[in-house]
Amino acid sequence: MSILVTGGLGFIGSHTVVALIKEGYKVVIADNLSNSKIEVLNALENLTNETIPFYQIDVIDEDAVSRLFENQKFSGVIHFAGYKAVGESVNEPLKYYRNNLLSTITLANICQKKGVKKFIFSSSATVYGSNRVPFDETMQLLPTTNPYGETKAMCERILGDLVQANGDFEVALLRYFNPIGAHPSGGIGEAPNGIPNNLMPFITQVATGKLKELQVFGDDYPTPDGTGVRDYIHVMDLAEGHVAALENSKPGVHIYNLGTGKGTSVLEFIETFERVNKIKIPYKVVPRRVGDVAYSYADVSKAKRELNWTAKRNLEHMCRDAWNFEKLNSKD
Ligand code: UD1
């Protein structure tokens, strides 16, 4: 019996594949390569010394997913596949609703037909909207500012309704805070297409000289230094959180924040990156980015209590590993 990892060649998916194999799981990857590269499969096989069955399919393609479930037997599914660019989701909402909702519905439907009960879903802290920090799982969700965030909230509800109707389904909704960093080997990491939207990949590209300077989006937030505060989590900690969720899977729908519980401002982030990697990051402050909140950080007590999981790596590890990956993999 294997674990199906959709989007297993993406940033979080690939690190989770490594964590699963390390714990002795057999893994099958389904990925349509729309935002990932086949080279990641070779990197994963080198890192794990395993041959990993790979299916280049789109999870909204019901026939292809059905065939996959005929070929392989699964004890659980971790569903990462989805579009994730916030700005693009504002410009192309239907693309996001179609892909992110249909993939989840298709996969859950086939799991139901085939009796695969363990289902782990990639959600996001973005579903909290502009609630008060720390965000905890019992909070009433506020509307998010973009279709990407709405797809995450909607998929959570769809899976919740499925559990209402089928009490023996075991669903974990994992709300990620800000995953960054890379596998310490530098074999896999975050490799966004085009100019990065997120802070860490932008900074590593400023560090290589590919981008001239960082723009800090606003220094007039009601935070200690005026810049946005986020809960950055090492992607390997996040990956291990998925293994913990799988091992503690139980009937019902269970929501867990995966973060560190610690907030870091943009200026603190830059200072840490510069200190750890001994590189100057030129930056200038520009107006706020639309849709950003002042604060986002997790109450992590539920994951600790129920999954016996906490993040072990700190921001220094995240900065070191992200830069190591960028140095080894950037070409210009
Ligand atoms: C973003 C998404 C969120 C998604 C998450 C995935 C938005 C509005 N939110 O979160 O929905 O789940 O990525 O990782 O895009 N910053 C700069 N300059 C930059 C880039 C970022 O100052 O060039 C600041 C931001 O204002 C923010 C912090 O850095 O305060 C982190 O930004 P980012 O890495 O983009 O993550 P989020 O916006 O928190």
Structure overview:
The protein is of the alpha/beta class and 332 residues long. 41% of the residues lie in helices and 18% in strands. The protein has eleven helices and 14 strands. The protein has helices at residues 11-22, 39-48, 62-71, 86-91, 93-114, 147-165, 199-208, 235-247, 266-277, 301-307, 315-329, and strands spanning 2-6, 26-30, 54-55, 74-79, 118-124, 170-176, 178-180, 214-217, 229-230, 232-234, 252-258, 264-265, 283-286, 295-296. The protein has a seven-stranded parallel sheet with strand order 3-2-1-4-5-6-11, with helices on both faces. The protein is globular. It binds uridine-diphosphate-N-acetylglucosamine. Residues 86, 124, 126, 149, 178, 197-199, 202, 214-217, 228, 230, 266, 289, 291-292, 296 line the site of uridine-diphosphate-N-acetylglucosamine.
In short:
41% of the residues lie in helices and 18% in strands. The chain contains eleven helices and 14 strands. Residues 86, 124, 126, 149, 178, 197-199, 202, 214-217, 228, 230, 266, 289, 291-292, 296 line the site of uridine-diphosphate-N-acetylglucosamine (UD1).
Using brief descriptors, characterize the structure shown:
11 helices; binds uridine-diphosphate-N-acetylglucosamine; 41% helix; three-stranded mixed beta sheet; globular; seven-stranded parallel beta sheet; 332 residues; alpha/beta; Rossmann fold
